[in-house]
Amino acid sequence: MARFPITLFLDLNKLEHRSIRDAINYASPFIFGRLLDLGAGEKPYQGLFKNTEYYSIDITAHGTKSPDVIGNALALPFKQDTFDTVLCTQVLEHVTDPFLLFQEAGRVLKSHGHLILTAPQSWPLHEEPHDYFRYTKYGLKLLAETSGLEVLLVKERRGSIATIGQLIATVLYDRLGRNRVFRGLIKLPLIPFLEICSALDKIWYYPKLTLGYLIIARKN
Predict the structure, then answer these.
(1) Taking the chain, what is the end-to-end CA distance rounded to the nearest angstrom?
(2) CA distances from residue 1 to 14, 65, 81, 105, 181 in whole angstroms, order as listed
(3) Alpha carbons within 13 A on the beta-carbon side of 73
(4) Contact status, residue 69 vs residue 55, Cβ threshold 8 Å
(5) What's CA 70's distance to the chain center, in Å?
(6) Residue 100: CB partners within 8 Å, gap ≥ 6?
(7) Residue 138 near residue 211, CB atoms below 8 Å
(8) pLDDT digits (tens, 9 = 90+) for 112-167
(9) How many CB atoms lie within 10 A of CB 64?
(10) In DSSP terms, which residues pair with 134 in a beta bridge?
(11) Torsion-angle region of residue 167: left (phi > 0), alpha (psi -120 to 50) or beta?
(12) What is the DSSP track for 153-210?
C-alpha cells in the first residue's frame, strides 16, 4: 500500500490507496481500544493507530512484516468479545465466504465495538486465483445486518471520474509497465493525469460508479 509522501506521489494506484487511507481517517472516531487488523498484509496502516492496542492477523506472512498471529479470517483464533475494533481493508473480495467473515468479526467484537471495513466495487483481478467478489453498498449492508451488526454508515470511496481515471492508469501500467523502457515513460503522463481526475471528481461528483466502499457497523 501507499506510503508517505514521495512514494504516494509516484504510485500509479494512488487514488485507490488514498481512498482507503481517507476512509480509515474518516472512521477514526469509531476506532478505539484493542484493535484487530484482519488480513493486515504488511500492516500499512499500523501507524494510524497509535492510541490503540494493535494486533494483526493474516493467513501468511508478507515480506519482512509478519503478522502478530497467523490465522484464517473465517475461523479467527480469538475468544468471543475480545476486541473493541476490527479493521478489515480490501480483504473481503479474497475470502470464499464473506458472510462468515462478518460473523467472525462480530463474534470477536465486544459489545458496542465497531467493524471498519473497506471493499472494492471497481477493480481489476488481483491476487489470482483468490479473487472472488466485488461489492455494492447494498451487498455490504446485507452482509452486516445478516450477521447481527448495526450499520452506522456506508460511504463510497471516490466518484466516477476518479474511478475511471484510476482504472485507466492501472490497466495501462499493467499492460505496458513490465517493459523497463515504457515503465518510466508511462508514469510521466499518468501521474498528473490522476491528479487531474482527482480534482475533476470533486467538481462533478457521481457516486454510483466508485472504487469501493467503507462500511462502519456496530455490535449491539
Answers:
(1) 32
(2) 9, 13, 30, 23, 24
(3) 29
(4) yes
(5) 20
(6) 74
(7) no
(8) 999 999 999 999 999 999 999 999 999 999 999 999 999 999 999 999 999 999 99
(9) 6
(10) none
(11) alpha
(12) EEEESS-HHHHHHHHHHHHHHHHHTTSHHHHHHHHHHHHHHHHHHHHHHHHS--TTS-
Identify residue 26 by its one-letter amino acid code: Y
In the chain, what are the domains?
18-158+207-219 (3.40.50.150)
Tell me the C-alpha distance between 166 and 49, whole Å: 27
User: Cβ atoms within 10 A of the Cβ of 16, count?
Assistant: 26
- Report the distance separating Cα 171 and Cα 98, nearest Å: 27
DSSP state of 59: S
Say what the pLDDT of residue 10 is: 67
Paired with 88 in beta bridges are 117
> Which residues, listed in sequence order, are joined to residue 37 by a DSSP beta bridge?
56, 87
pLDDT per position as a tens digit, 201-215: 999 999 999 999 999
